[in-house]
Hints:
By secondary structure, the protein is of the alpha+beta class. The chain has helices at residues 15-30, 33-51, 56-62, 64-70, 89-95, 98-115, 126-139, 141-145, 150-154, 157-174, 180-191, 199-213, 226-234, 246-253, 258-275, 280-292, 297-301, 305-313, 315-325, 333-343, 351-359, 365-375, 381-394, 407-419, 421-434, 465-484, 493-501, 523-534, 617-621, 642-653, and strands spanning 438-441, 444-447, 508-511, 548-555, 561-574, 580-585, 613-616, 624-629. Helix 20 (333-343) crosses helix 23 (381-394) and helix 21 (351-359) runs parallel beside helix 25 (421-434). The longest helix has 20 residues, at 465-484.
Amino acid sequence: xxxxxxxxxxxxxxxxxxxxxxxxxxxxxxxxxxxxxxxxxxxxxxxxxxxxxxxxxxxxxxxxxxxxxxxxxxxxxxxxxxxxxxxxxxxxxxxxxxxxxxxxxxxxxxxxxxxxxxxxxxxxxxxxxxxxxxxxxxxxxxxxxxxxxxxxxxxxxxxxxxxxxxxxxxxxxxxxxxxxxxxxxxxxxxxxxxxxxxxxxxxxxxxxxxxxxxxxxxxxxxxxxxxxxxxxxxxxxxxxxxxxxxxxxxxxxxxxxxxxxxxxxxxxxxxxxxxxxxxxxxxxxxxxxxxxxxxxxxxxxxxxxxxxxxxxxxxxxxxxxxxxxxxxxxxxxxxxxxxxxxxxxxxxxxxxxxxxxxxxxxxxxxxxxxxxxxxxxxxxxxxxxxxxxxxxxxxxxxxxxxxxxxxxxxxxxxxxxxxxxxxxxxxxxxxxxxxxxxxxxxxxxxxxxxxxxxxxxxxxxxxxxxxxxxxxxxxxxxxxxxxxxxxxxxxxxxxxxxxxxxxxxxxxxxxxxxxxxxxxxxxxxxxxxxxxxxxxxxxxxxxxxxxxxxxxxxxxxxxxxxxxxxxxxxxxxxxxxxxxxxxxxxxxxxxxxxxxxxxxxxxxxxxxxxxxxxxxxxxxxxxxxxxxxxxxxxxxxxxxxxxxxxxxxxxxxxxxxxxxx
Length: 661
């Protein structure tokens, strides 16, 4: 006997669901054209149950011709595939409307069947179907990449998985070459944000490499930038140009003369800083140089004068970090180490002893198990965590929440790394050594140890090691603080944000929504106060001193409300063209988003530093719903134009505030 479940099909779908779906298709096929509209709903309901299971996309693909012939699309907007527009697919998938979501998914499967020759349709040829799907894929690359947008995160996880499976199947069927340039551009767009967690990007670059070896790139319009991406991981230097393997490369290094080794170090650093990605070969080279030519460490890290000064002053600590944290499996932390030295945070008195403590820290068994379960056991848990600490300290704005509802925790970790790194190191110590974090709230101590799991349950997906062990504790404490504020009138973030993040969060709270009703309240005053506090023309040109926690109303590309989201205002300044923009940290791993009504979030090209997002200040204000200020910041140094206020208010009522007036 084998261990197969007799109630499951080969694809993993419950056999009973498939049987009911087939019965629904049969009933629908027997109905007259007039009666089909009544029988579509039962068939659609059965499609939902199948699609949301592993293997459901394949199961419905096998039945798509039968579904089409039976009349699943009859009388709907999807009845005539020749009239469908690729540009509308994204809006439909983001709408969350159950029937539309199913019919759109089935529609893509119908195009897929036509494109692959499994079925023939009188209105659409195989080539037309391929062209349609290529455009759909190009407009929805985040579905292929598995990017954690807010719209996707708010959706049913089963549907998110189903749609990712759908787009993967589309790409494999029509050929990645159809969207080769789009995939390359998407990778560069994400890399411009310099995320710490790069697993998804590395997988895509590996796929790029395979496509090019198989000749798939020949269908691309240009393939510009693909070679740079592939070489950054597999052939970053002269001695790795044919991807020789780590052992062979290590042997070659031992035979290089001083000049060649220096060239190798400089070339490796250039590849790293060009893309923000670090090759496993870089770890082999760094460890060789640390052991044999430590004078070349600044070169292999690509340090400027500021970083070289930090290295000279703290060489022993740097060497210890290399020894204990850097190996091929943690190579990405080399970029974090370089930026840690560049940031100059080792000059802050508590940072160096705190890092020495981290180097020798013994992890609680439960923490070690969590790290191994999340990342695998190829690298010791202590090494994995120390590498994560280096990355977070070097790249505060590279922290991300992954595909998890933990934007508050991710923002907190990033803000502490940015402005209070020794406090972050203390929290990491508690979480790693004690498997517990303690925080004060209005004079009372809250311990995560005795609290139930919050939103972050189970293993966190696509996050750095620091977030993997710390975010669950922060999540529990955040929810407990909210519980302690439950009986107070107003939004609990008024008290949580200053208590949780630190003294530097201003105590005057501004909110545009009446909490009991959800309606807009004093929108004009809210906008005026924001401009008075942050706009350089109205606040006496006072820069933002510390990252300021704020909340936005996230909207999708159709300007529909998705949900509330935690971000941090980093700075407000004029971009190279003179437009005043808000530069902010968004922990959702994909900071370049379309908020609808022409508001496109930028991550590069408008004066952003790595990890920052930006939009013009009026567009930002139109999605803002809470922010903090000091009382004197609300005094206008120069009047705010009523015309500007009305323009922002109009953008609010045309989007997330449409039903809140």
